[in-house]
Amino acid sequence: xxxxxxxxxxxxxxxxxxxxxxxxxxxxxxxxxxxxxxxxxxxxxxxxxxxxxxxxxxxxxxxxxxxxxxxxxxxxxxxxxxxxxxxxxxxxxxxxxxxxxxxxxxxxxxxxxxxxxxxxxxxxxxxxxxxxxxxxxxxxxxxxxxxxxxxxxxxxxxxxxxxxxxxxxxxxxxxxxxxxxxxxxxxxxxxxxxxxxxxxxxxxxxxxxxxxxxxxxxxxxxxxxxxxxxxxxxxxxxxxxxxxxxxxxx
Length: 250
Prior knowledge:
Blueprint: E1 44-45, E2 53-54, E3 59-63, E4 70-73, E5 83-88, E6 96-99, E7 112-114, E8 119-125, E9 132-134, E10 145-147, E11 150-154, E12 157-161, E13 166-172, E14 181-182, E15 184-187, E16 207-211, E17 223-224, E18 226-227, E19 232-235
Parallel strand pairs: 1-3, 2-4, 3-5, 4-6, 16-17
Antiparallel strand pairs: 5-8, 6-7, 8-9, 10-13, 11-12, 13-19, 14-18, 15-16
């Protein structure tokens, strides 16, 4: 075996340096480390994570969320080329959240939520504007997951109907920020009527509607839909106006 000892290898011309030929395998010696490369083979995979943790650039993580939702917080003050990989072992059981830690994720300010078993993602940091970007397509798109009210389904949409005061709780947001919008219809109770045999009706209650195009056919009164984040939203249901008694008192 021949041995070549040098400190620096440079190209004689151009900017491309080729090591080996087609079919060759280039291997680092045991204990040696690489610097400046961002291929999958450079990821230093860690043991299975069973609690919330903060990621380190250059590392990969298997996350077991079978015991409850888990959060991986991305590194603070990342540099261009920093890479983090994650595999959600039980994402469909309990979501795994990738918290952005003040940096953008693909130009937005939403965290990334993994909600499928064995979904994986590798993120590379680009710059302050774009932030962390995905470099694989192994995470199926997730959508808003929420509880509260009576839930029914219409095609790809879920409808939460509230007939009493409760909470609309968003457990996780969608992968695509554009999907974190909800349509709503609010109908207020009618006013109280006049006394028996002499008074008129109290009139209908108010009506408000916000519409996310594609979810249903909106009325002409509809305005824009509302953005949601992972938190609880109190829903208060009141009664209609009380009618007058037989003597005409309000």
